[in-house]
Amino acid sequence: MVVICLFADKAGQLTNQDKAEPPSINLPTRQATDNQMPLTYTTSYIVQTYDINKRRRMTVAALVKLMQEAAMQNVMQIKLSLWDLEKQHISWVLLRKNLRINRLPNIGERLKVCTYPVGFEKVFTFRDYKVFDEKGELIAYSSSSWLLLDTRTRRMSRIPQFILDYEKDLPPKSEWLPRPASKIPVLKNAGFEKKFRVNWHDLDFNGHLNNVYYLQWMLETVPDKLLESGTLKAFDIQYKLEGMWKDSVISFSEKTGPAEYLHKLVREGDGKELATGRSEWASL
Question: Where residue 18 sits, what CATH number does that domain have?
């Protein structure tokens, strides 16, 4: 994942423009059809032993990795991966991910994962993810926001026409997930914190801290009882900066409601925020 400092303010602009009403949707609780839309990637997956926790349920990190891999396969399929874009000197940047979980699947369950791009707005692009169980029930879904980085100048790039040409093949707006309607509140009084170090095996293929670790490290600072017995229902994360090899990163969290927490990751060396987040849990 590529994220650089100048995008911190741009991400805020994205959140502000998201306050406009999202497309009207009726979120399906079941998979409507097996007929794929032109830009959709769909894959099946069986929950493995390395995906689960002691309750034999898939971890949130494993679920997000599954979504992430589906998105990577999708952009490779439609020839818009970061390797396909190298000649144009542009690359994708993940800005925000809004995850909703109806339930976490158990070991051995067969899942169907669908992902597809859902629109362009100025310099921003959007992608949705949906995960269904064997009965076709929607068990998790996520919207996400992206932009393009000019790899030579390390600045935001306009979306080129050859990418905008895909707009005609986007799914109908009835298939779009709602986008976040507000900014993630500022964490003011951290009640929990934990320090991490970015190790070699935490890096992605860009040489930056893999975006799944951002979420995972944020969740490590909630109370033990939540980790052991709680159920995460929602997680909204805003990415701001790259985590680099050997960085020391401090994860902070603040309880803001009976089952709600704010989160942030701060690089210890310069005090800059790498990401902010908000989690919602089912009541224990």
Answer: 3.10.129.10
